[in-house]
């Protein structure tokens, strides 16, 4: 029954995750949509497994964010190896040069940026958007045991396929020490995520401050993060950490002022998604040429994100008494 009851939101998350992570971002043009065959199992499978494990154990968004960062290490250290490759896919992007750490063979800016990109955008944002669209099932598991097994196999296929494709394009291989260090960090983040306490504090009687304002702040801070120049080096690292701290403080203030409802969760995800959407018009796709179809695709993906946010807003507003940050089952 669990599989049947939650199959549609689960499938929606599987496809929303890669659409946000690569296409709304503008990293891949609309012509590359067939790549969803591989990207959906990896991004979507990862987001779905993280969401299901967290909801099954009664934990909340802190665990989702930490597991999102663990996902970042899995993808960028093992699948693509971009954390270690000085010339990723031979694109001459110089990703490791800003705030380079010679002893680790890593760039502090790129590592931090990948932890943010995957933790916030690739994993948390799609979950926030889809959960808002199904408010009656936002805090309950969508899959049964069979569904979890299928999701795990789908994710494994995505990881293996992406790794194979990437290695065929660029035969780079990181050192054993780098792989071991990444594995340790991966395990530590998973342990931390599931060591976080299960909150059972009930939502207060006070009305939560405006979700519109929270969404606006999320959009501003997420947009600012997108605009931090990598050329700042350690200054870019400091700027990103400052923006992270500012967003954390805002969320804590909102929680302290009143219950953080499903509408507020949507607002946070919407701000992050819209920052991706508008910024896509400023960048060149990582694959292919910049032509009119690219900008048409950017507009289509942004419109799709806005439509999903609109649907979530209608559903979440109708269930404004639900508190996902402060009320746990």
Quick recap:
The chain has helices at residues 2-24, 36-56, 61-79, 108-133, 145-169, 176-195, 211-227, 234-257, 262-279, 292-317, and strands at 100-101, 106-107. It has 329 residues and is mostly helical.
Task: Enumerate the spans where pLDDT stays under 50 for 5 or more consecutive residues.
Answer: 201-206, 321-329
Sum up the overall morphology in one term: globular
> What is the terminal separation in angstroms?
20 Å
Secondary-structure content class: mainly alpha
Roughly what percent helix? 55-70%
Please indicate the count of domains: 1
Biggest β-sheet: strands ordered side by side in the sheet: 1-2
| Average of the residue pLDDT scores | 90
Largest sheet: 2 strands, antiparallel
Secondary-structure element pattern, one letter each: HHHEEHHHHHHH
How many H/I helical runs? 10
Number of strands: 2
Beta content comes to: under 5%
Radius of gyration: 19 Å
What keywords describe this structure?
329 residues, disordered C terminus, two-stranded antiparallel sheet, 10 helices, globular, single chain
